[in-house]
Amino acid sequence: MMPAGWLLKSEPDTFSIDSLMAAPQKTTLWDGVRNYMARNNLLAMQKGERAFFYHSSCPVPGIVGEMVVMSKAIPDPAQFDPASPYFDAKSTPEKPRWFAPKMKFVKKYPAVFTREQMAHTSLGNSQLFTHTRLSVIALSAAEVGAIDQWLGALACR
DNA sequence: GCCAACGTTGGC
DNA sequence: GCCAACGTTGGC
């Protein structure tokens, strides 16, 4: 089962879609993920796949825009840096634990597809709601379809 | 700021 | 290898 897309959470206070737009080449390494289920999802991402930028822990949580997987995950450099908050003493360059794909900005949506709105679509059954603490989520075709449908409705207003 | 959910750690 | 304690996430 190949996912039709991915949902990546980030706290806008730490890294927002505006941060991504301002980044060199509008590109970033999606680093700092320290959860094995999320890690496995990061490793499954393939170049060219769609990914949705979700703002969490903020006044209006929801999807704020879209990215594309620019290149497959590489070992997350932060895990080897003792000065980094993402340092992992148990990880070595020979046997890295944590990985990070490179993501590229595609677009910022003219509105937020809020978590509240998402709950009323097929996304209501997605892992965003069933696995509340998972920060990298695989989306089915139906779930991506719900996002596209919301986008389409926006465009027609 | 609270607190529920839940992944991780560490003692045994 | 169990499980209690602990820490973190993230919505509200």
Account of the 3D structure:
The protein has five helices and six strands; from the N terminus they run βαβαβββααβα. It is of the alpha+beta class and 157 residues long. Strands 2-5-4-3-1-6 form a six-stranded mixed β-sheet, sandwiched between helices. Strand 3 and strand 4 form a beta hairpin. The radius of gyration is 16 Å and the shape is globular. The structure holds a DNA duplex (12 and 12 nucleotides).
Entry keywords:
single chain; 157 residues; alpha+beta; six-stranded mixed beta sheet; DNA-binding
Write the layout of secondary structure elements.
Layout: E1 5-10, H1 17-22, E2 27-29, H2 36-44, E3 50-55, E4 62-75, E5 99-114, H3 115-118, H4 127-130, E6 136-139, H5 141-155
The structure holds a DNA duplex (12 and 12 nucleotides).
Question: What number is the mean pLDDT?
Answer: 94
Shape: globular
What fraction of the residues are assigned to beta strands by DSSP? Answer: 25-35%
Radius of gyration in whole Å, from Cα? 16 Å
In short:
The protein has 157 residues and is α+β, with helices and mostly antiparallel strands. It has helices spanning 17-22, 36-44, 115-118, 127-130, 141-155, and strands at residues 5-10, 27-29, 50-55, 62-75, 99-114, 136-139.
